[in-house]
Give the backbone structure.
Amino acid sequence: MNHVGDLLSAYLDGELTPSERALVVDHLDGCSECRFEMAGVDAARSAIRSLPILDSPVSLEAFAHRRRRRLASRLGAMAAAAAVVAGFAIAGSGSDEPAPLDLDAVVRQHSARASVDPGLIPINVISVVNEP
Amino acid sequence: MRRAAALAAATLAFLTAGALFAGARAEDLEDYLERSAESEFSGRQLVACRLGKQSAADIYRVVRSGGMTVLHRGGHDAMVGDGKIGDTAGFSSFRLADWSAWRLSSRYQLSGPRHTGFMGREVTEVRVMEGDRLRTRLILDTQSWAPLFSEVYDGAGRVYCLSAMLEFGPAGSFPVVPGPPDGYEMIPSLDSVALPDAAAGYWRADSYRAPEGMTQSFYTDGLFSFSVFEASGSRRAADLEDGWRHQVGGAEYLRTLLPGEVRVLWRADGRTYLLVGDLPPDHLDQVLQELPRPRSPSLLSRLWQRLFG
């Protein structure tokens, strides 16, 4: 199971997209480990909020920036992987949005030609009124 | 010496008589088919087909007169014959510029005929053999040569398609013949197409420009026929995408069955192919193996298919 620990902080900060939020909520619903972790994060954040506000050192800002970049890069990698899998699946099925084909117009031309020969007429010309 | 000459003469006479007899029988089969095609009648006809677990059946009103066949179904009249087609459903009317002369494959032989009764009429039963296999049984009205009943058998000897006249009368007794269309668009023939000249005993008789940017190659063996429509790129026929998956030699096609007709769609080498015809299933599978073949579905495609249908 892939836990959502890296997303919890952003979740609590309201920085996730709706789909990411839904992902986290769905996961928390079934994962006691992450719920416990989030409770810890939330408690820590509450404790931190109760502390007096100080100017944050630059190194901490850099750490937070790196953390956000790592989170973004992980989400990007996940999206890229999903795109690659979807791309393979679509390429594998050979359907790159094919143009529609009007069968009725095409099939009538077969009936016109088949009607010229004896064969098993009229069986072989009934396609002119067949509807798939 | 005289005895040897007499024996040789008798053998020659026997062989000649045999050849003449065989030739007469082959001509008879062609005659029966041509007479049947030229017959004039009207009626209500049931057509039913079965292919694997798929089946299709319907009832049509039919009038044949003056070389044209008019079919009526569900408020829709269509008139076809002599390379022309027109209807009351708003489709364009067109005629083919030219076509090759008809001939019958030598793989078919006539068995019978047998004179009997059917629907209270005198009829002639004609059996068409392909080798030692019964391929088609026709019951023709002896007076008009109209086809009152027909069966087409698959390679295992099961009925693939049948047609039965439920009502029968002279031409013109059904008031369903629409007037001829005002004008016909001329469809020119094509000199060359990429498809093979022959496939599984069928020969490519003619090729034409076709609607939807396609080309049409018409194949026949004189008894059954099919057209292969071909277009560059990937084309999608919604009616067939929901059809049956037809497997032949490890390749997968999309197939649908209609009364008297099978349609098969596939893609190969960046092109889309649509086969439409009345050929029996064992012939169909042989033909598909001699036409451009679709690639086998990839592992991911099969997985996708299994997961999402």
